[in-house]
Design brief:
binds flavin-adenine dinucleotide, about 15% strand, alpha+beta
Amino acid sequence: MGARTGQQYLEALRAHPPELWIGGERVADPTTHPAFRHVTGSIAALYDMQHDPALREEMTYVSPSSGERVGLSFLTPRTHEDLVRVRRMMKRWADYSGGMLGRSPDYLNRALMAFAAAADYCAANDPRFGANIRRYYEEARERDLCLTHTLINPQANRAVGPAGQADPYLAAGIVRETADGVVIRGARMLATLPVADEIMVFPSTLLRGGQDDAPYAFAFAIPCATPGLRFLCRESFDYGRSPVDHPLGSRFEEMDAVVIFDDVLVPWERVFLLRDVERCNRAFAETRAVVHMAHQVVTKNVAKTEFILGVVCLLVETIAIEQFQHVQEKVAEVIHYLEAMRAFLRAAEADAAIDRWGVMTPAWPPLDAARQLYTRMYPRMIEIVQLLGASGLMAIPTRDDVDGPQAQTIARYYQAARANARQRIRLFRLAWDLAVSAFGSRQVLYERFFFGDPVRMAGVTFTSYDKTPYIERVRQFLARADAAMAPQTPAPAAGAPAPAGERDR
Ligand SMILES: Cc1cc2nc3c(=O)[nH]c(=O)nc-3n(C[C@H](O)[C@H](O)[C@H](O)COP(=O)(O)OP(=O)(O)OC[C@H]3O[C@@H](n4cnc5c(N)ncnc54)[C@H](O)[C@@H]3O)c2cc1C
């Protein structure tokens, strides 16, 4: 089939809807349900870009197996140019939503590409698994599947691992193995973008299991519409308003869901790792999937930061606060974050090298630094929007108000130095959706946590980063200082008595 159109994505979802539950109701058709129809429309728009004659070259490449044009985020990079090409494609998708769609399909396409390139890693668990991951990657590429994923066990008792929970099937675990496959029961949290074709159920990128956790150690992928698989969605932050009133929530509410496995059969051909705790613990690092995912993430961060800078600058200009020094300082801070993200991305690409799987892989330290710093940069940028927008973020009548009986009053009192009331309200509603609304608050939580607990991510940097050369350099520096401070007295002539101080030592 090759690269899909938006229509093909929507039709597949309609034909095979996942079992989504929201507000006590089972969703019959996610493409028309109020909580999902706008975000599915946005994902469809991303797929449509692949067929835009002006973008086709940029968004797709020729499949090595079928000769069809397929999505570029599936490309296995062999050269620097490949990496740059993939990044440009990912940036195009990220720009569409101002970086607000964290889970555009490229995120997991990069992970799957890396796992398939490192298929021998899975084969070392079981030779069938290596062939499975290779075949699955090709299937996902040729059918242009949209994937969601879930890596984390439910947050019941964090003092113990999945095997130590009161209920052995609280965390999704293996019930039995049959001739057809593996039966899974329990829950995982969280899966963002449950309106996907398939779900990757993989080990954590960060958390380590112990030997008792073998029944919870696996990697597999199955259709979201598999019998027994349910998605319990949180309340939607798409309130069904127009994009004028809710410029972000009405388009990019990608939803998060807890995933329930009710004795779900996973066919053997979709199993990639099983019961191998150590291999699961190291899976994302060893296959380098985490690096390729971070390449997508930092690309998205650049797009998101550019978008925030645009909002902040327009807000400052609209109400004429640019002359105040602290305002300039805050705008400059956002600029510094943007330039830092760009520099990290560029450094990661410039220092890319072929890894042991034969894949051109970006350098990890700059991407790791970028993804971790962003967990603090993003909340700070949102704070800056609040500090500069102030009460303007509450003076945001809806379109019904602007066009209603109070229209003239609103036109008079909501005008700004450099915008009429209508223009000002549109801008401030955008700033509100970015920095104040439920949608905006969820974005902050997302940026803090989606790649893992920032505290434990920092712990991994601390333990894995090679600090020795810097410690050694300081030791040598201190030794140099010791030498400089040694007494400068001339050496005594042979046979002469030593000076009094030295005799006493
Ligand atoms: C909006 C959003 C979307 C997400 N989407 C996805 C998704 O699509 N797929 C997916 O797999 N995951 C997703 N996640 C989950 C994400 O991976 C987790 O939030 C992250 O790994 C942290 O785990 P947790 O939320 O269970 O927090 P917990 O591990 O329960 O941590 C809670 C608090 O306790 C502290 N804590 C707990 N244990 C320890 C410890 N051992 N040492 C030190 N401190 C500890 C943490 O620092 C934190 O402050 C999403 C999360 C969010 C918020």
